[in-house]
């Protein structure tokens, strides 16, 4: 993880939507389109990294609380 504070997921996602919209609208020069594509790929990675961290955090919380008996048990699908 870098020393810079990561952008909040929502901000990065909104920026990604804006980049995609600009690319889809067309009318861009090749260099501008490539620069936007690169920016979009960086934003997509930031968003995916944020989602991965959130998933890991949720998984750890579930494991912690389920192991301690502090949460609801997993549903029994064998019935």
Defining traits:
2 helices, 0% strand, Helix Hairpins, mainly alpha, 79 residues, single chain
Structure report:
There is one protein chain. The chain contains 2 helices and no strands. It has 79 residues and is mostly helical. It has a single domain, classed as Helix Hairpins (Orthogonal Bundle). Helix 1 packs antiparallel against helix 2. The protein is elongated. The mean pLDDT is 87.
Strand content: under 5%
* CATH architecture annotation name: Orthogonal Bundle
Global structural class: mainly alpha
> Could you estimate the helical fraction of the residues in percent?
55-70%
The rounded distance between the terminal residues' Cα atoms is 44 Å
Which helices and strands occur, and which strands form pairs?
Layout: H1 9-25, H2 30-67
Helix pairs in contact: 1-2
Write a concise synopsis of the structure shown.
The chain is mainly alpha-helical and 79 residues long. It has helices spanning 9-25, 30-67.
């Amino acid at each position: 993880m870098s020393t810079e504070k990561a952008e909040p997921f929502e901000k990065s996602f909104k920026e990604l939507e804006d980049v995609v919209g600009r690319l889809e609208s067309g009318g861009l020069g090749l260099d501008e389109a490539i620069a936007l594509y690169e920016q979009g790929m960086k934003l997509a990675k930031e968003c995916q990294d944020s989602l991965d961290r959130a998933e890991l955090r949720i998984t750890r919380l579930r494991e912690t609380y389920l192991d301690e008996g502090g949460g609801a048990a997993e549903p029994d699908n064998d019935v």
